[in-house]
Amino acid sequence: MLKDCDWSLDRDYKTGSENEPLQFYLDGLANSNEFSLLLGYFSSSAINLLSVGFATFISKGGKMKMVINHLLSAKDKEAISRVEENPNEIRVFDLTDIVSLGRVLDEYDTHFFECLAYLISEKRIEIKVVKPKNGKGIAHYKSGVFSDGQDAVGYQASCNFTYYGLSENIEQLEAFLSWENGRSNKLIRKQLKLIDDYFTEKDEDVEYISVSDIEVVLKDRFGKKDINELLVQEEQLLRKKQSLISNPKLKKTITKLFSEIEIIRRTPKFPYSEGPREYQINAYNSWVANNYKGMFAMATGTGKTITSLNCLLNEYKKTGIYRAIITVPTTALVEQWKNECAKFNFKNIITVSSKENWDKNLAFFNTASKLIDTSYIVIVTYASLPRPKFQSYFTQLPKDTILIADETHNLGSQGHLRLLPNIQLEKRIGLSATPHRKFDEAGNQAIQEFFNDEPPYIVSYSMEEALNIGWLCKYTYHPHIVKLTDQEMEKYKELSLQLLRMGLFDKETGNFRSTPEIEKKLLERKRIIHKAANKLEAFKAILRSEFDKRKNLKYTLIYVPEGIEANFDETDFSVETDDENRLINEYTKAVSNTDDSVMVKQFTANSENREDILKNYEDGKIHVLTSMKCLDEGVDVPRSELAIFCASTGNPRQFIQRRGRVLRLHKDKIHATIHDLVVVPEVGGEENTFEMERGLVGKELERVVDFANLAMNKTDTYETLKNILDYYNLNLNDL
């Protein structure tokens, strides 16, 4: 707090004295959360004093108001030009020439602008740029007010915008402490009113210039570092500064700041300055009220990951330690969760999958936690979870370790159900956009008992709610009914008859009872749907139509027809088969042939430089991504505006996740467009298999109707489905 600082007794700070101006700025920045600054011009002396301590201020959630006069008078420029004849002298920066600015910055200047860019990107700074009018304008002295929410410290620096002041680099300022006397309080209020008058544009002696261009350029030029990188950089600059100074008081302050930076870097915190949203706070409270158990049934894109990690953060705040095990389906999601944990500043993250040697790390932290209060997080794939090697460590985890099960429905599989009764961890969070396992009441019951929760669940946000609230973008939906060729239809009917003769079809559930022979026949039949030849022609027609309408295919995502779904009980990554690679090549070629200007790239398990591919897609250098399962595996592509679903896996959960991925918000996206190729076999009403096919078609159309109900163009969609609904005598309201 500001009151705790050792302020100069006479409230004066001057270069070369016991109380250096740098001492004042370090105390102010490190002990406040609001900073109002009147900076007449950007000079290297001003920036050097503000740069060290700036990241510390930001890391504590600091917010800022800044008024700058970036246009210099002829007299000012003359003084500067005289100084700049000597290359060792001070520099003054003109924000109107950001290109030249980038060439002359030293490491302290650069750090300042990178901190500034971070504040801009976090929307935690207001900048007002003014231009003198009629020979008048803002003074060239620096002044400002630091505030910690209770007390305030104001200051006014001397006017050094002269040849002597610039070349000698002399700084002098006077401080005012709000708790000290009436005069100080009056001066602080006067300073704040002066700055507020600029922000409300009440001062008529200046012109007000748009700051948007400067903000954009600053973000583009300097906005590449996160707060942890800025803190590391600040520590390095402070060490360098400390080695060059002899002032014992200043050295002591810098040493204290080192300790503070280290604590900040070690301490977990919510990754966004505005803090958790109300629903995330409510989710934690509901989870605690439900005896630290529960399901978070939240639509893709609504922040399941952050909501669950906020629960871990809140528990850390109570105990001073954090321990969690996070279960995920794929290695790609392992990396995504690892990155999200890092944003919260959680350390000691151990990842367990088929691709890593993890046992030594886990053994160390497991042993350490029995001796001392040790914080760590284990992220493990579902395929690795039941294996004896991992279970030998898992069963030893402290009981207060929080279990976060991502894509919770995976716990309902036969391979994992047997584990649930023996899991001793008492704090549990299940995450899923679609927690219900269709036609698996035993699996559903086991999951509900394990998490002490059942529908409508302690936390529930549907896709409809997310769209209405504005967490996801609106979309139009266009289903395209695709028919099988005569040859495909003949083979399909033959397999359907064979399945029917086995007598294992359950009309009530619309499912077959599982046997190896049934599964084999169903897979053969699924491949006919999946490889339907007419899909490719329908796909080409959609591409041509969208290209003619948009004049390009930028930000397009293609889900190519795929083969067998990966079983994440047994494996934690997917690899395309030769047949799948042939298909993705075929669909990629169709995209390329749409127009010579279209840039398309495959995104597969074998793709190298995946991050570069996604970055080029985001930047519009790659227009279209063609993929199969890889974009399901925790890869975010919020820039996507157009999606074409060519897959027919029959898995509604997968389609719902894909829809949520396309509907993620992006500042440059207004709404999304989704095209969906739906293969529907036409079986005659007189045929024996008609009722069986009617049930299967009804199941497939459930997904289509669900997509349509939430679309902006749902009436048009219903019209598209009318013929097939009539053909199979299906009622839209029953689906």
UniProtKB/TrEMBL annotation:
The keyword Hydrolase applies. Keywords: ATP-binding, Helicase, Hydrolase, Membrane, Nucleotide-binding, Transmembrane, Transmembrane helix. It comes from the Bacteria. GO terms for molecular function: ATP binding; DNA binding; helicase activity; hydrolase activity. InterPro entries: ATP-dep_DNA_Helicase, Helicase/UvrB_N, Helicase_ATP-bd, Helicase_C-like, P-loop_NTPase. Residues 552-718 form the Helicase C-terminal domain. Residues 285-453 form the Helicase ATP-binding domain. This is DNA repair helicase. The chain crosses the membrane at residues 35-58. It holds the Pfam family Helicase_C. The keyword Nucleotide-binding applies.
